[in-house]
Amino acid sequence: MSSNIQTLILHAHDTGPNPYKVAILLEALQLPYQVKLWQFGEEANGVKGPEFTKINENGRVPALEDPNTGVVSWESGAVVNYILRVYDKDSKFGAGPSEQDKVDFDKWVFFLVSSLGPMTGQCNWFRHYHSSNNEDAYKRFQEQTYRTYGVLENQLKKSDGRSMLEKGYTAVDMHFYPWLLQHDYAGCSVDSYPNVKKWLDSMAQRPDIKAAYENVKKGEKV
Questions:
Q1: How far is Cα 203 from Cα 108, in angstroms, rounded to an integer?
Q2: In degrees, to the nearest 5, what angle opens at C-alpha 72 toward C-alphas 209 and 120?
Q3: Segment 126-137, tens digit of pLDDT
């Protein structure tokens, strides 16, 4: 990547999964970036506060500021797509060339953002944050999370647990990894899903993923 590229700014916090997706892609493309860590809440350093909502009206991370283009993006899917369009012209981590390749890429990203992500997030909420115990609600979302694990298990069989798409390692894997990594926190086990477990173990050894987790955690606190 050109040394003339100015440093991008990734707005994040270090607990949720979505900022890590973006950091992994930035690492994979060897793009310079700095991390600013925001807190929850409406204070001056909070994602619901007046400073951050100038960047993202929805008051959530991640958001990305790119001084090279003047573009500000938020929502992790939109941020990843922006980076792929602008900085991955050869589609090393994007979809393959055929229309089926593009559909396959999109459908698995949408499966993450519409199914596995929200179901895991609800498990997290009812297991750790809900004001009162609601085991029925938790069980419902846990069952749906396991259903999505089963879908992924069958998909990963096609690559022998190496990657979500048969093409190989792509941004689809980057989308899924931070959410699946939270399975313990959500109270879910991957022991019954050998290809999912194999994939998780393999992803954890990737240098770009290791670097992303290190860099986000040591980001500059706002």
A1: 17
A2: 45
A3: 999 899 999 999
Spatial CB neighbours of 8, under 8 Å, sequence gap ≥ 6: 26, 31, 32, 33, 34, 64, 65, 66, 67, 68
Model confidence pLDDT, tens digit, residues 154-193: 999 999 999 999 999 999 999 999 999 999 999 999 999 9
Tokens found for residue 115: 């199914």
> Which amino acid is residue 27, in one-letter code?
E
The 3-state secondary structure of 112-173 reads: HHHHHHHHHHHHHHHHHHCCCCCHHHHHHHHHHHHHHHHHHHHHHHCCCCCCCECCECCHHH
pTM: 0.96
Task: Return d(Cα 60, Cα 111) in angstroms, integer.
Answer: 21
| CA geometry: angle 64, 178, 49, nearest 5 deg | 40
Q: Tokens 């953002």 sit at which residue? A: 113
Question: For residue 109, which of 90, 89, 81 has the smallest C-alpha distance?
Answer: 81
Close Cβ partners of 87 (under 8 Å, ≥ 6 residues apart)? 1, 29, 31
Residue recorded with tokens 């993923």: 209
Cβ atoms 40, 47 nearer than 8 A: yes
Q: Tokens representing 133?
A: 């115990």
